[in-house]
């Protein structure tokens, strides 16, 4: 019997936990079952109480104190500990039926999605046929306000692509908090962010400032805030961004779905993409009519 799940990932503050909460509320309203797994050992408050919480296995606070680690090192330690204690997941998830959507709320430390091999191992474990066998979809959130700074947007897109390549499961990318950019970006421009368009760098409004500075900064003077700003907007920086954007374009893997958690239709639309990715509906038994619906007829 297959199980179904979505792993909600992305940089710190991208809106992962808020999306998980909106998704659970939406599922409940539609009489679907959710199983909420919090894998962020630093998360403290939740709109919906997790059904399984990594904090019951290991606490980031204890790790930081006992192992003398900072928050990022502590998080990696927690995940390594989880990988040595995978029974913690198996015991809780094994009995779930195909009716459930298992929602994994992940931490925001970017290194988890880029170069540390823990997540691929975890994903392989969750999806392994004959074991938990979860049909898993990865949902990578990037905050839509990133589009205001094009260099930041392409850097974020590169991190999304890195997660896609690393995890090798069906994957959707999401621009979250769309309500925050409503009316600020023209529709025509937004399309170029939804499917990354490298020419966005050619007509970057930030370039106007760059041309004025006519920069390639003398490294000897690098140090003051002003010089740092000049460096970040210099010709070398532009070449770097163009190279990153070219890389993203050559793989042609990333495109985004738009999410506004305050809008129920938007959450429903993302859910239908997730359902498609994991082929949720194909495994569902036809539902019996609810009693009052029968009475109405
Ligand atoms: N306006 C708006 N704010 C949002 C939305 N989604 C999340 N936020 C806000 O963004 C902030 C961060 O949201 P979280 O859901 O905690 O983000 P996260 O990705 O789980 O953060 P970490 O777990 O710390 O990495 C909170 O203040 C949320 O209220 C949205 O769709 N619209
Ligand atoms: Mg969170």
UniProtKB/TrEMBL annotation:
<protein>
    <recommendedName>
        <fullName>GPN-loop GTPase 3</fullName>
    </recommendedName>
</protein>
<comment type="subunit">
    <text>Binds to RNA polymerase II (RNAPII).</text>
</comment>
<dbReference type="InterPro" id="IPR030228">
    <property type="entry name" value="Gpn3"/>
</dbReference>
<dbReference type="InterPro" id="IPR027417">
    <property type="entry name" value="P-loop_NTPase"/>
</dbReference>
<dbReference type="GO" id="GO:0005525">
    <property type="term" value="F:GTP binding"/>
</dbReference>
<keyword id="KW-0342">GTP-binding</keyword>
<comment type="function">
    <text>Small GTPase required for proper nuclear import of RNA polymerase II and III (RNAPII and RNAPIII). May act at an RNAP assembly step prior to nuclear import.</text>
</comment>
<dbReference type="GO" id="GO:0003924">
    <property type="term" value="F:GTPase activity"/>
</dbReference>
<comment type="similarity">
    <text>Belongs to the GPN-loop GTPase family.</text>
</comment>
<keyword id="KW-0547">Nucleotide-binding</keyword>
<dbReference type="Pfam" id="PF03029">
    <property type="entry name" value="ATP_bind_1"/>
</dbReference>
<keyword id="KW-0378">Hydrolase</keyword>
<dbReference type="InterPro" id="IPR004130">
    <property type="entry name" value="Gpn"/>
</dbReference>
